[in-house]
Structures are given as structure tokens and as C-alpha cells.
Amino acid sequence: MEQIHLFTKKLKPTHITHALSVPTHVLEAFQIPEGTHMMTFEAVDATDIVWSFCLSTRLTGVYTKPVLLRSSWLRFVKKKGLVPNDRVVFFMERDETDEMRSYTVRAQRKVMRLMGQDVWVDVEDLPLYGL
């Protein structure tokens, strides 16, 4: 199976206290059942913990404005100790028939800038860097 990068999101204060807005273009990577506006999916983190997230879209208006609902998202934020300017990265893998999809999530913090490039580390690995 091939790993596909879905999106990377640098966290703002509202992402830490409320919901995580998701780029609209990634909705095609999720199979929201016809006639509904939300679905639950699982994503595995760097420590192989499975997180359940609820993805929801708007019922009215021009834009779907997808978000990860606070009920599922804030548990992840709290457990990972995320703060503004950290980032999350979501990936998807799918089999050849596109019938089975799996997701991974990484919570990362910028630890330095090296040769003009930001260096991001999974938050689980921060103690290894003395941070």
C-alpha cells in the first residue's frame, strides 16, 4: 500500500481550544456516507495508538467547511500536549481496489531551523531532544 499525504496543518489557538478545520480538497479521501454530513474514522499515531476522529461538514452554505469535531479532536490535543504553532500531519493508505483505507496522524513541534529549513519532530520524541 502507498502512503498518501493528505494535509499538514499548523495549529492556531482556535485549533487548540475548539475544532480543527480540514482542507476541503481532502474530503475525497474520506468516504462520507451518502445523505450524511459526518463520519468517524480512525488514525494511528507514531506510538501505534488508535485515535477516533469525527469529520463533519456544513449542512448549509456554499462551502462544506470540513472540521474534526471538538469531542474527538480535543482528546488528541490534550494527550499530545499540543500548543499553537505545533502541527499535525495526516496520511492515508489504500489498497489496490480502493476498498480499504487506513489513516495515520502525526503531532509535531518545530525544534529548530537548520540551513533555512524548519526541523519538525513528533511530540513523542521531544524528550530525546531534551525538550
Shape: globular
CATH architecture: Beta Barrel
> Helical element count?
2
Give the CA-CA distance, first to last residue. 34 Å
**Total DSSP E strands:** 8
The CATH class: Mainly Beta
Order of helices and strands: EHEEEEHEEE
Instruction: Calculate the mean pLDDT score and round it.
Output: 89
Key phrases:
about 130 residues, mainly beta, At1g16640 B3 domain, eight-stranded mixed beta sheet, about 10% helix, globular, transcription regulation, DNA-binding
Summarize the structure in words.
It is found in: Nucleus. This is TF-B3 domain-containing protein. One of its GO terms (molecular function) is DNA binding. It comes from Dovyalis caffra. With 131 residues, the protein is mainly beta. It has a single domain, classed as DNA-binding pseudobarrel domain (At1g16640 B3 domain, Beta Barrel), CATH 2.40.330. The protein is 12% helix and 42% strand. It has two helices and eight strands, in the order βαββββαβββ. Strands 1, 2, 3, 4, 5, 6, 7 and 8 form an eight-stranded mixed sheet that branches. The longest helix has 11 residues, at 70-80.
Q: What is the element layout, followed by pairings?
A:
Elements: E1 2-10, H1 13-17, E2 20-21, E3 38-44, E4 50-56, E5 67-68, H2 70-80, E6 87-94, E7 101-114, E8 117-122
Parallel strand pairs: 3-7
Antiparallel strand pairs: 1-6, 2-5, 3-4, 4-5, 6-7, 7-8
Give a quick precis of the structure.
Helix content is 12%, strand content 42%. It is mostly beta strands.
